[in-house]
Specification:
Elements (H helix, E strand, L loop, with lengths): L3 H20 L8 H9 L5 H13 L2 H11 L5 H24 L6 H19 L2 H6 L5 H21 L8 H31 L3 H30 L1
Helix pairs in contact: 1-10, 3-9, 4-6, 4-9, 4-10, 5-8, 5-9, 6-8, 6-10
Keywords: Membrane, Transmembrane, Transmembrane helix
Pfam families: HupE_UreJ_2
InterPro entries: Put_HupE_UreJ
């Protein structure tokens, strides 16, 4: 039986995680005003692109779920900075290169891989690889590689709007900067919540439940994206 001290935080956590799924099932969704702006802008638009990048990251539940898994068991600031930097490096590289060199993949497939990254991190946190393989894959390399896929997902979405060449590189730098600002803001909130939670005895009880929810959310993302791929 789960007592009230555990049941209540579990319910809140479950609602928090699934809210990412239920608000907007389309990964990397773009609202109408942003869509109109991206399709009609000309020249350098530094501030608007930076704002769009920040908004995109804050509402990008798939990126945030992955980062929750990455930092869940990181206790030292140095480790958190290192892992987030690895993700940022991979993310920034493919975002810039994907758009500048017009590298395209199917958006549903790349988003399914992003869903896989959430499954991977939750499963790794549960010790699944150690039980099955006897060892865990290199976590830093995995974060970097999945960061490349996350950036490629954003690049794929941006290319749908056929951004004009005039001012493109500067606008992409601004977008990337906005993504990092949004990521920093979201991580600050997540870190504060996790740090506070770690002081409570329920953190230990809920670590398994939380990462099981992450795995479940990742499989839901994969299923949704693969369904979209085969239907469309």
């Amino acid at each position: 039986m789960i007592n009230n001290h555990i049941r209540k935080p579990l319910l809140v956590l479950g609602l928090f995680l699934f809210s990412f799924i239920s608000f907007e099932l389309m990964a990397h969704g773009v609202d109408e005003s942003t869509r109109v702006f991206l399709q009609s802008n000309t020249g350098v638009q530094f501030i608007p692109f930076m704002y769009i990048g920040a908004k995109h990251m804050i509402t990008g539940y798939d990126h945030l779920l992955f980062l929750v898994g990455v930092i869940f068991f990181l206790y030292k600031s140095r480790d958190i900075l290192l892992y987030v930097s690895m993700f940022t490096l991979g993310h920034s590289l493919t975002l810039l290169l994907g758009v500048m060199f017009d590298l395209q993949v199917n958006a549903y497939l790349i988003d399914a891989i992003i869903g896989l990254s959430v499954v991977y991190k939750g499963f790794d946190n549960l010790g699944g690889f150690k039980r099955i393989l006897g060892y865990s894959p290199n976590a830093k390399a995995a974060v970097l590689i999945f960061g490349l896929f996350h950036g490629f997902g954003l690049a794929t979405k941006l290319q749908e709007f056929q951004l004009p060449e005039d001012g493109l590189f500067t606008n992409l730098i601004a977008f990337n900067l906005g993504v990092e600002i949004g990521q920093f803001a979201a991580l600050m909130f997540i870190l504060l919540a996790i740090s506070y939670w770690r002081r409570h005895h329920t953190f230990k009880h809920f670590s398994t439940a939380t990462n099981t929810l992450l795995v479940s959310a990742g499989f839901m993302l994969i299923g949704f994206q693969l369904t979209g791929y085969f239907v469309n």
